[in-house]
Structures are given as C-alpha cells and as structure tokens.
Amino acid sequence: MNRYFPVGGPVSEDDIIDRELFLEGITRRLRDGQNLLLAGPRRIGKTSLALEVLRRLRREGHDVALVDMFGITSARELAEHLADALLENRTGIQRTVERIRDMVRSASPAEVRVSVQGIELGMSFARRHGSDLDLLEEALGITDKMARSSNRRVILVFDEFQELARIDSNLHKILRSHLQQKPHISCLFLGSKPTLLDQLFSHGNEAFFRYAVSLPVPEIPPNAWSHYLVRKFFERGISITQAEVGALLKITGGHPQDTMLVASEAYYVLMEINCHVVNLTVLEIAYQRALESLMRAFEELWGGLSEHRGAQQLIKKVASGERPYSKNASPARVGRILAYVMSQGILVKVGRGQYEFLEPMFRDYVSRL
Questions:
Q1: Which domains, and CATH codes, for the chain?
Q2: DSSP class of 71
Q3: CB 3.0-4.6 Å disulfide test: which of 4, 54, 303, 367 passes with 64?
C-alpha cells in the first residue's frame, strides 16, 4: 500500500481534501449531542472523515469508540467489540476484554468485580457468562461509568450500520431502546447502502425512525483536487500542469479512492523511468495499471449483479451511453432494477431519466466486457 498517495483504507488528516468545514460541523453536532447519519457508497471517504472527527473529539477529552459492523456475526461479538473500543480510551490497548479474560481465567467462580482504569466490569462479562443481550447491555453501561468519571459526552461510531439487521433482526429495537435512555451518548452512523439506511432512519415503522440527522458527504471540488495533487507531486520534485490534473480527474471522475490510485501509479511510473514530469502518456499507463489492480474487485461486483435479473443488461446500456428507459421496457421493472443498482452504489441519478456511474472506472470495465 502506498501511503504517499494513500489507497486501500482510511487516510490521515493531511490527505483529507477540502472537508474542513464539514468536519467542523460534524464535530460540533456530535459534541452538542446530535446523532448523525453519513450514507454513501464505499470508498468515498466516510470512514476517514469519521476517524478524523474522533481524533478531534478525543483531543478534547471525550471518550470515543468506533465499531465496524461488517465482520461482526452476533450480539455477543458486538458487545465485545464495543467494550474493547470504549476501554481502549483508558487502557490504550485494542483488545482489553481479552486481556481481562486472561487475568481472571484462574480466578474463583465467585462473583467479583474487575476494575480497568476506574471502570468496573462484572465477572460475567469477563468470563463470557450471561446472554448475548446481557453482555451488550453491560457494554453500553460502560458509557455511563465513563461519562460520570469524565463529565463529558461519549461518542459512538457504527460503521456499515446497515449490517446490524444481518446480525440479528431484533437488534435495531434493542439498540435504539438502550441508546435513547443514555443522553450522554452521541452516535454517528455510517453505511454504504443508502437505500437501506434511508428506510431504517426515514420510515415510521422502523426502530431508528428520525433518530439521526442525515448529512450528505460533500464531493471534492476539482480546484481542491488540483491544489492537493500539485502539492503532493511537488513534494517529491515532480511537476504536473493543470491540463494533466484535468485529464486525471476526467478519467476517474474525481472518485476519491480511484483518483488516489491513479496518482499513486503515475508516481511509480515516473520513478521507473526516472522522470519528474507528469504527462498524458504517464497518465495513460497509470490508468491501465490502476484498472488492472481493480479488475478482481470489479469482476466480483459484476458477478454479484447477475443475481438480480436485468441488472447487468441495464448497466451495459448506461455504460454505452443509452438511457435505461426505452419504449419496449416496462417502466415499473426498469424502476425496480434502477433502485437496486443505485442501492449498490453503482449508478446515481443526475436528471430526469438520466443516470451516471458513480465510479467511472467501473463504467470503463463494463464497456470493455
């Protein structure tokens, strides 16, 4: 992974481009007790923004925790991940719960208390006793003890929050019930399935109805990309003109991760040929290398679309410049397919009957099939 042009994961504060006002707004809202929702396709920078917000709130003295729902399979795992993330504020250790279990493994079975930097845990939690939901309640109870000890708000971030229903269909109601009784907690919900999250937070029969304010993640404007790319290349003694910056952004559509990836490949092409000027030939080679590195991910995405009848055919039409609706197609059926592919973060509506690829490099992949 090249951390000079960071790809493949969250980026540092120095590589967050033109989001300062947005970051300040999120930080202020969470500090004031508002719950927020950031929904959008994967790889557009939501987690990077959330991590930067948590860094700022931690510097202010708040206890913070991020729980990634993507790999969690049970309420028990959710409880343990949440407890670990919360206790890390006091211990500096990522897997505090496991350390505690190592400590009490040889202890007597009598009920005792375990204290971690002034935060007490029941022995049932340390020994994995009790039901999954009891453990989740105890993990959430850690926030009460933290708030009392610091007299500050606790900030929870749930990444890929739409995955909660996959873990347990009852967890929405259970978690909402716990959270609404804890005014000292502010929550930031992240998710890559906007349609599912919109239903969860906007439909009256859902547990999280109107529980969080939805904020759109702002796009990075071309002039901000230009300033960033010129500066980053200049730091390594490389020059790039506005024309080449424009060409780079045209082929990536300004997609955050794809733009970083092509810039990264361009940097390494230049190192290989011992050149210090970005030109169109370098960009073309970099783009092809970037596309090759994304091929497996695109193949998996494309293969998954075969499970929804008509999705691949519709996407091919849009990739070739056609509109999805036609005289011979059922508008209702086309609408259902469009809703599905948009929920997957592939297409975005830009006008009446007009749709574009959120990731132009995936459009290029589809066009070459």
A1: 19-214 (3.40.50.300), 220-305 (1.10.8), 307-369 (1.10.10)
A2: T
A3: 54
